[in-house]
Amino acid sequence: MNNELEGYKWKEFETAELEAECAGLEKRLQSTQALNDQLQTQMVELGTLAQKFSNPRYHGMAAISTVEDAVAQFYQAYPNAPIHITTGAVQKNIVRDYSDPLLVRSALEWLANDYFMAKVRGDVDLPESALNTLGMVYKADQKVTTKKGKHREEYEVVFEGRKIDCGPHLCKGKHGESMLRIGFGYDEESKTVVVNYIGRHQTNTKS
């Protein structure tokens, strides 16, 4: 009788131990699957970056060191892009000391592709696209008080005789050399993205 009882207790202990081991293995499997998903996402992002910075359109061109270089290379690589960058769009506060001019070039590519297609077809999630492609935040508009303030020239422009609202903008960083703001709008009649601001933080009612 005692032997049967001891045997039963041992089986019960062994079952509990196996269940605990299974639970541990299941937890490790879930953790591994989550890590695998994360690695796959990173691989996609790295592939996107690699494709972006190895774009054959830029092969043979000199390395860029300023925002003005980035704009010039973009126009050279995409002469027929549906983008108009206004005279004076590149601000003095970013001309020489911006730390990542490649991002400006990539942002212009994004405007010529994702943003343009969103305006034409309406099938692009712009906030998600900007964040995934550029690591930038897309905002569809500015505050009315900001656009109608004393610096309204930063938020609207006349293009081919038509007034274009340039409230939409891309932004990254809040201070320092990494801060970037790109303000733009869209002209429905000519189907052109109009870029009116490339610089640091745009002027508002507090600045």
Explain the layout of strands and helices.
Elements: H1 2-53, H2 67-77, E1 83-85, H3 101-121, H4 126-134, E2 137-139, H5 144-147, E3 156-159, E4 162-165, E5 169-172, E6 180-187, E7 192-199
Parallel strand pairs: 1-7
Antiparallel strand pairs: 2-5, 3-4, 5-6, 6-7
Helix pairs in contact: 2-3, 3-4
Short description:
This protein has 207 residues and is of the alpha+beta class. The protein contains five helices and seven strands. It has two domains: 1-54; 62-199, no CATH class.
Task: Describe the overall structure.
The chain is of the alpha+beta class. It contains five helices and seven strands. It folds into two domains: 1-54; 62-199, no CATH class. The strands form two sheets. It has a five-stranded mixed β-sheet. A two-stranded antiparallel sheet has the order 3-4. The N and C termini lie far apart (89 Å).
| Secondary-structure element order, N to C | HHEHHEHEEEEE
> What is the number of helical segments per DSSP (H or I, 4+ residues)?
5
Which word captures the global form? elongated
Task: For the largest sheet, list the strands in their spatial order.
Answer: 1-7-6-5-2
User: How many domains make up the coordinates?
Assistant: 2
Low-confidence stretches: 46-54
**Number of strand elements:** 7
